Amino acid sequence: MKKVFAFLLCISVFMGCAKHDPILPGERHDVFGGTDIIVMNKSVPILSDTAKNIYGNESCDFTQDVTNTIWRGDKKVFKGFATDDLVKSNQKPICVDNFVYTGFSNGEIIKLNAKNYRVMWIADVYKENTLTGGSSIVDVIARVGVDKNFVYAGGLGDAFCKLKNVNGDKLWCVNISVPVDFIVVDDFAFVVGADDNLYAIDVRDGSVYWKTKIKKQVAPKYDGKYIIVNQQKINYIDGQIQ
Is residue 131 in some structural domain? Predict the structure, then answer.
């Protein structure tokens, strides 16, 4: 009888932790597969003069450390699963509409309630065969981006994804490894990949309109006419370097 009670207690404890602990089963989402990159060699239509603000409030007072722990000042508000292998970065959570979003070294994206620190959802963002193929580098070192009802996230595990903000469900993923922040202008994301390419991606369906080689992996900027990566100016319409 004591063994049965201990077993049931163990189950109860694990189920209680599952909702918040990413190393246990619970309210989280399966590893995301993605589509191979098919470049359409298609022109991007005329875009607005400014990129969207997808990185929330500049006054966001949440931080994180290499152990996948989120802090608010000196208060620990979430403890994720730490990894032995990681890529050093200056990853910082973003704050949007009373929620906190960030990515971890284990390829996870988390949405946290900024008031009560409740975990809304956890999603894995890396290509399905990344881990089974022997690679352990799935870090999310680019900031997570939020555009109203959608979340954009890219990690080093060959996945740039669009998720539903309400529950973290995947809408699409493209197999691009993302080492730096990206931008969104109207219906297009401009993403620098770890393969030294800049990609123009239609965020409505994940289609890749064009890609072009760049000299340095730096977060892109937009001046209303060109996508600027380091000192390179790239025509957003066709990806031609000016």
Answer: yes
Tens digits of residue pLDDT in 32-44: 677 779 999 999 9
Q: How far apart are CA 210 and CA 123, in angstroms?
A: 28
pLDDT at 30: 60
Query: In this predicted model, what pLDDT tens digit does every residue of 70-115 receive, in sequence order?
Result: 999 999 999 999 998 888 888 899 999 999 999 999 999 999 999 9
In a domain? residue 158: yes
Instruction: Burial-class residue 50 by CB neighbours within 10 Å (0-12, 13-18, 19+).
Output: exposed
- The beta strand positions in the chain, using DSSP E, are 28-29, 62-64, 69-72, 75-79, 94-96, 99-103, 108-113, 119-124, 145-147, 150-155, 159-164, 170-174, 183-185, 188-192, 197-202, 207-213, 221-222, 226-229, 232-235
Question: Does any domain span residue 41?
Answer: yes
Give how many domains the chain has, as a whole number. Answer: 1
How far is residue 102's CA from residue 142's CA, in Å, rounded to a whole number?
A: 9
Question: Model-level pTM?
Answer: 0.87
> Range of 50's domain?
2-235
In a domain, 240, yes or no: no
